[in-house]
Design a protein that fits this description.
alpha/beta; 16 helices; four-stranded mixed sheet; about 400 residues
Length: about 400
């Protein structure tokens, strides 16, 4: 049933707007808009977009702006990154979405990432998986096998460097934590003892820094050997900083999210054979999966309409449209789509249930954002020991908050 739109049925959605390239379709944006249109037609609402994208590293980040807007109840719906989901949920700024029909169809991995204190606080339209984007032609040119372990990865970088490739790995200020998380939690998520290990971290019996150290030492070695340009990475926006060199065949390796392989605004149309593989770890190539999500503000002005809108946008019907348009992993266990050949290596690992969660709401210390920030300290000259001390400080702070809650 379709209703005529009424001006008083307006829902505001705050989201990032990807920087556009002339004459190139933004497929990711189109996919989301198709689900919005479906909700508008079904409910008779109008969804108004409010968007923000930082121009450079000196601007406030999208996360900074989102936190401010959500804390001040400025919008109804918010597309949130994993660290912001956890912060706002702990501040009780987000509605519980577990009663929505669409919530019943979610994969377990989505619930694990976005349930905070028993409440489902955000639902994504895709499961974001990060991997290494590889110029396979360059690997073949130098007779290199695709790396499985950190040692094999460093060996590949050494060969590239010896053959005149100045910076083998293109990096930006956001995504180097994927290397760290893959190495830190390969065993935790794939060793059969996940709940017990997370419980030990939450109680302080185990230290996050003990998990993280190897990954930070790996990044420091990459910096010391010149395999990444720390100064450039510290200031570069995602894809903008390294994308041109990768597409030009000057940089053989970059890191990005699944959808970047499909869209011409990112890496969807390279002039070489591209493959997307997992990050090096003790258990082989490891996808890293942080969880974004759309949330409803706890005091949203149009809360009822916002909840209904989100329910349709994340319904199996809408997610089928989204998934087919964007060729991504659906959060619904009932929706799937064939991936492009470049993504098959990453997809095979995910289908084998081999992955690391980049964000997990059951961990009391938020992972994705904190690790990203501490990696940036490393890029800016902090030592590995100083970075580990920062994890210890954050863990102590988290434990203190838990104690205060109990009291």
């Amino acid at each position: 049933m379709t209703f005529e739109k009424q001006k008083d049925h307006v829902v505001t959605l705050f989201s990032p707007m990807e920087k556009t390239m002339p004459d190139v379709d933004n497929v990711a944006r189109s996919a989301s808009e198709k689900t919005v249109i479906l909700a508008e037609e079904r409910l008779g609402v109008t969804v108004d977009y409010i968007t923000y994208t930082a121009e450079d590293y000196q601007d406030k980040t999208y996360d900074d702006i989102t936190l401010d807007r959500a804390r001040n109840n400025m919008d109804d719906l918010y597309l949130l990154n994993p660290d912001v989901i956890q912060i706002l949920a702990q501040e009780n700024k987000l509605m519980d979405l577990s009663g929505l029909d669409s919530a019943k169809n979610l994969r377990d991995v989505v619930k694990a990432a976005n349930v905070v204190d028993g409440k489902l606080v955000a639902i994504p339209q895709e499961v974001v998986a990060y991997g290494l984007f590889i110029n396979k032609d360059l690997f073949d040119q130098y007779h290199l096998e695709l790396p499985d372990t950190p040692e094999e990865f460093l060996a590949c970088c050494r060969v590239f460097k010896e053959n005149g490739i100045e910076t083998p790995v293109g990096a930006n200020r956001w995504w180097l934590e994927t290397f760290v998380l893959a190495q830190a939690y390969a065993d935790l998520y794939n060793g059969g003892n996940t709940e017990a290990e997370i419980a030990a971290l939450n109680s302080g019996e185990a230290k996050y820094s003990d998990y993280m150290r190897t990954g930070f030492e790996f990044l420091q070695e990459m910096i010391d050997c010149g395999y990444i340009d720390a100064q450039k990475a510290y200031m570069s926006e995602a894809i903008e900083g390294e994308g041109a060199d990768f597409l030009a065949g000057k940089t053989p390796i970059v890191m990005a999210y699944w959808g970047a392989a499909n869209t011409e605004t990112a890496y969807g149309n390279p002039d070489f054979n591209m493959l997307v593989i997992g990050f090096p770890s003790s258990r082989g190539q490891m996808p890293v999966m942080p969880m974004t999500g759309i949330a409803v503000g706890i005091q949203a002005e149009h809360a009822e309409d916002a909840m209904k809108t989100l329910d349709i946008m994340t319904s199996d019907e809408a997610l089928q449209i989204y998934t087919e348009t964007n060729k991504v992993i659906s959060p619904s266990k009932n929706v799937s789509v064939d991936c492009i050949p470049a993504l098959k290596p990453l997809n095979d690992r995910i289908n084998e249930n081999i992955y690391v969660l980049g964000s997990n709401a059951s961990m009391k210390l938020e992972q994705w954002g904190n690790t990203c920030i501490i990696v940036r300290k490393l890029l800016n000259g902090a030592t590995v020991d100083e970075c580990m001390a920062e994890f210890d400080r954050l863990q102590a702070e988290s434990l203190e908050k838990q104690t205060d809650k109990i009291e």
